[in-house]
Write a structure and sequence with these properties.
The chain is mainly α. The protein is built from five helices and two strands; from the N terminus they run ααββααα. The chain has two domains: 87 residues; 49 residues, no CATH class. A two-stranded antiparallel sheet has the order 1-2.
């Protein structure tokens, strides 16, 4: 376990704690203001590039569409009579490829429920995955006492953490 950080200032009384809580509130407000300023600066920087990026993306999409259209219009010469599925150019390659392929229903009359029933009827559970059962930790915590938890190698571990939540008064002059 890591050692707690050493406090940079020491407080001697409740009045010191009240003053420190006010300073904590001011620090939180300053952080929020700086984060807002940062977000505005980032948004401004992004806006500067958006029009150029949009134009470049539109140009890329138009060029890819034109290449695809030409390729499919001239399929026989591009694929050398079906011997290959690509065409090598001086500065790149264009072609077509099959993806990994995904199972799909044969037609609209086949739903996934009907498919599951048919697979189960023909092959049993061979093609079905069983999910690993997961521990219900909350139920164990609620229903087993400490001794029963220890028998199965468990314990409830509580960690205490400190918090300081300054109140946000309506008027800044109300900060003590």
């Amino acid at each position: 376990m890591a050692r707690p950080k050493q406090a940079k200032c020491t407080l001697q009384s409740i009045e010191d704690c009240t003053r420190a809580m006010g300073e904590l509130l001011l620090a939180n407000v300053e952080i929020a203001a700086i984060e807002d300023e940062q977000a505005l600066a980032v948004a401004g920087a992004q806006a500067k590039f958006e029009t150029r990026l949009d134009a470049a993306r539109e140009n890329r999409a138009a060029l890819e569409a034109a290449l695809r259209e030409y390729y499919y219009a001239h399929l026989a010469e591009m694929e050398d009579g079906g011997n290959r599925k690509h065409c090598k150019l001086a500065n790149g390659v264009m072609g077509r490829r099959f993806g990994a392929g995904k199972l799909a229903p044969l037609n609209r009359s086949w739903t996934w429920d009907k498919i599951k029933s048919a697979v189960r009827a023909l092959h049993g559970l061979k093609f079905f995955r069983a999910a690993d059962p997961e521990l219900d930790k909350q139920a164990i915590k609620d229903k087993l006492d400490a001794e029963q938890q220890a028998k199965v190698g468990l314990r409830v571990k509580n960690e205490e953490t400190f918090y300081a939540e300054p109140a946000r008064p309506d008027a800044p002059s109300e900060v003590a």
